[in-house]
Each structure stands twice: as C-alpha cells, then as structure tokens.
Specification:
The chain has one helix at 64-77, and strands at residues 4-7, 13-24, 27-33, 42-47, 58-60. It has one domain. The chain is α+β, with helices and mostly antiparallel strands.
Length: 85
C-alpha cells in the first residue's frame, strides 16, 4: 500500500504509512503510522466512503470502545509489533 495523506478542514495534512488492514462488521479499517519504520504514533482509520464514490474517504476512529476493540484486533494480526493504547 502507498502512503496515505489525510487532509484536515483547516488545510493541514498528515502523511501516514499503512501497517495493516482489516474488515469488521462490513467496514474496512487501516492501522497506519506516522513513520515508515521504528517507533511512531499509530492511528486507526475507518473507511467512510460512499459506495458510489470514486475516492476513498477515511476518518480517524475516535470512539473509545471501537478503538479498544480494533487495537486488540490489530495486536493479534501484528504479533511482532507492540501496540499501546
């Protein structure tokens, strides 16, 4: 997967590097980090694209219960990576 660039409402942007993807209850999620290698900050992105849309639309997961569930799921998928909430 290529680098992801998230653009905010105020014109700011952040570059993220995908580490893993998963699908839960019909929704796609991406675990991405702000560095290509080494220690960095991880973010979980949720696909909120419309079915008829051409561009993928992702937003950061902010719900604590959803984050905890996904953090555990990604931890199992990436056994050799230490994820902390």
């Amino acid at each position: 997967m290529e680098k992801i660039i998230l653009e905010g409402d105020q014109g700011e942007s952040i570059e993220l590097y995908p580490l893993e993807t998963t699908r839960l209850a019909g929704v796609d999620y991406i675990l991405a980090a702000d560095t290509e290698a080494g220690d960095g900050t991880c973010y979980i992105l949720k696909d909120v694209s419309k079915e008829d849309g051409q561009d993928a639309l992702y937003e950061m997961v902010e719900d604590e219960k959803e984050l905890d569930l996904l953090l555990n799921l990604f931890s199992e998928l990436l056994e050799d990576v230490d994820l902390e909430g």
